[in-house]
Design a protein that fits this description.
Distance between the termini: 43 Å
Radius of gyration: 20 Å
Helix content: 40-55%
Largest sheet: 7 strands, parallel
Strand content: 15-25%
Shape: globular
Order of helices and strands: EHEHEHEHEHEEHEEEHEEHEHHHH
Length: about 300
């Protein structure tokens, strides 16, 4: 049996669509919240068992692990430790954890929590002595629909403003990944049962600079946008002033710092081991902007 967490989320819904498209035959158990929209699950035609509950409930985790061979954990990284503990207790064979490339950031706030989670996982695995496979999947910036909370922020900003400040000229490189490509990758790994351990980056087709990404958004929106370069030091200074003025309630310092950080990562291992082949960024971006414009009409 396959256990899935986060199947009603952004990339989780694309994973569900892959299961449907490929007529997945094995039983699937999904943990969903009381507030989740499960209509796609209910009408999938797959052998799906829904369990309503919260991943921070140890009793729920123990219950859903019974009879499970593989766990696809798409929900928050901050549930990974408890999911792994429950999987070990129930003798699950493989746990596939969707984590993040944020672990590689040089900025403490952007990486320390993620590193601590993974160090705890390593410690638990050593102490358990169990032969359980753990696979890390690390998406870069996820985009692909108007609920992605990443690209849609930039799309709305460029749609509404004619003058856009860009840190250090927007020279830093990004490699956004479409949720559709993630859904396919999750399915590929689930099907490749011979993959029992590994650490795979799931990035977009190729790197793109932030300024080129902004210009492409502006082009697809048919907007005339002026981009003004702001030195990183000035951006950080303004963020510090904002933090002081709000008594620490608004703290964008490290977010601004990361605007000058390259966040592009190669995905060769994923391509080699399970045929990962992401779509061109312009193609995925056009789909998201078309969806945004359709909603705005």
């Amino acid at each position: 049996m396959l256990l899935v967490t986060g199947i009603t989320g952004h990339s989780g819904r694309f994973f569900l669509q892959e299961l449907i498209n490929n007529n997945y035959k094995e039983p699937i158990r999904c943990v969903v919240r009381y507030t989740s929209d499960t209509s796609l699950l209910d009408n999938s035609g797959l052998n799906i068992e829904k369990v309503v509950g919260d991943l921070n409930d140890p009793d729920i985790l123990d219950k859903v692990m019974a009879g499970v061979d593989t766990v696809m954990h798409i929900s928050s990284i901050f549930y990974s430790v408890e999911v792994l503990k429950a999987a070990i207790k129930s003798n699950v064979k493989r746990v596939i954890l969707v984590h993040t490339t944020g672990v590689y950031s040089k900025y403490k706030a952007a990486s320390e929590e993620y590193k601590n989670v993974e160090m705890t996982i390593d410690s638990i695995l050593k102490e358990s002595g169990r032969n359980i496979g753990v696979i890390y999947l690390r998406p870069t910036m996820i985009y692909g629909c108007i609920n992605d909370r990443n690209m849609i922020v930039f799309i709305k900003m460029i749609d509404r403003l004619r003058l856009i400040p860009v840190i250090s000229g927007g020279k830093n490189l990004l490699q956004p990944v479409n949720g559709r490509d993630l859904g396919k990758a999750y399915y590929q790994v689930v099907e490749k049962k011979e993959i029992t351990n590994g650490d795979y980056i799931l990035s977009g087709e190729r790197p793109i600079s932030m300024i080129d990404m902004f210009k492409l958004i502006s082009y697809f929106l048919n907007k005339k946008t002026v981009f003004v370069s702001v030195p990183l030091a000035l951006g950080v200074f303004m963020a510090r002033c904002l933090k002081i003025c709000t008594l620490g309630k608004i703290d964008f310092i490290e977010k601004v710092q990361r605007m000058g950080e390259d966040r592009s990562f190669a995905h060769e291992a994923a391509k080699r081991d399970f045929g990962y082949l992401p779509m061109p960024f312009a193609e995925g971006l056009k789909m998201e902007i078309d969806e945004y414009l359709k909603k705005c009409k």
